[in-house]
Amino acid sequence: DRVNLFGLGHRKPYILLGLLVQTVCLIVVPFIDPGSAYWSFVAVAFVLQMGMALYDTCTDGLALDTTPEDQKGTIQMFMVGGRALGVVITSLVVGLIAEKVSWAAVFWLLAAFTVVPIPLVLRMREADRPVERTFDWSAFSAFRSDVVIALAALGFVFFFIIAGANQLVNPFLEAEFGISLTLAGLYTAVWGIGVVLGSIVGGRMIDRIGDQRATWVSLGIAVAGTLVLALTSGPAMAWVVVALFGLAYGTYQTVYFALAMAHTDPRIAASMFSILMAVTNVAQGAGMGVSGVLADIAGFRWTFVLLAALNALAIPLMPAVFGRQKAAAAGG
């Protein structure tokens, strides 16, 4: 947001740097034996994640800079759907390559995929920033706003629940129905297809029925998608259930990311959006930890029921997030 690196822009050079860091790390990591050089492996993995976080954050910033207000659902549809499509492809291909060729081939293939967008980034031209998008430290005062605090809390609730439930899906199917690792990978692919569909549903809802209605609908889909996990009666039913849960996951993510875009101050677009995303990342970690403990205590099915019920925590936050929109509509 603040530094135009080498005069190349506020997004482009950082995206390139992140992609290059990830590519180098993916090439190097097969040469490190985690058993004998554990901390070297950890260091490379850490740097790799930093590279990914760098280009991911700046890509979000680029989307914030260039996406019209009425198309924020569409851009998040492509972003969430694209990531889910990557999960589908890797869940189907990575295991096969690792088994038939080697893990080194997997990492080098991922490095090759990382290089693919570089020519597209090189062709990109960033427009000069207008005054209203010029970096300003005072813009961080937005985090004292009741609306932004409520939005962050809403994101925490959403991602605590959806990530907590998501991490239990395959362990639940393995424990209840004894599915194989190969079958677990296929279920993950079906989940990914559901997420892609959910991104389309969420994106279209945001653009067509508005932020508030789309958020309420995504809340209902999430409750249903989580509850139905608890009702899974066998491996055959699980195909449908996993797809429905993927739909809920994709809808939730797309709608919230579009909401965050709508409330981001353009002077600190990437910074503000990344901070809101950091809250959701913390929520995911907390949700995974808590859901794991609950599954040990109460079992998978009751944990899914409890997580579905926790969506009620989002309800009192809605007026704070959307009150401003109501006031604006009334004034208009």
Quick structural overview:
The chain has 332 residues and is an all-alpha fold.
Note down, in words, how this protein is organized.
The chain is mostly helical and 332 residues long. It is built from 13 helices and no strands. The protein has helices at 12-28, 38-66, 72-100, 103-115, 118-123, 146-166, 169-177, 181-209, 211-230, 235-262, 269-298, 300-309, 318-331. Helix 6 (146-166) crosses helix 11 (269-298), helix 6 crosses helix 13 (318-331) and helix 8 runs parallel beside helix 10. Mean pLDDT is 86; it is low at 326-332.
Radius of gyration over C-alpha positions, nearest whole angstrom: 21 Å
List SSEs in N-to-C order.
Answer: HHHHHHHHHHHHH
Write down the overall mean pLDDT.
Answer: 86
Please report the number of helical segments: 13
Q: Note the beta-strand portion.
A: under 5%
Major pleated sheet: none
Helix content: over 70%
Number of strands: 0
Low-confidence stretches: 326-332
The N- and C-terminal alpha carbons lie at a distance of: 33 Å
Secondary-structure-based class equals mainly alpha
Question: What labels describe this entry?
Answer:
mainly alpha; single chain; 77% helix; 332 residues
Topology of this protein?
Elements: H1 12-28, H2 38-66, H3 72-100, H4 103-115, H5 118-123, H6 146-166, H7 169-177, H8 181-209, H9 211-230, H10 235-262, H11 269-298, H12 300-309, H13 318-331
Helix pairs in contact: 1-2, 1-4, 2-11, 3-4, 3-8, 3-10, 6-10, 6-11, 6-12, 6-13, 8-9, 8-10, 9-10, 9-12, 11-12
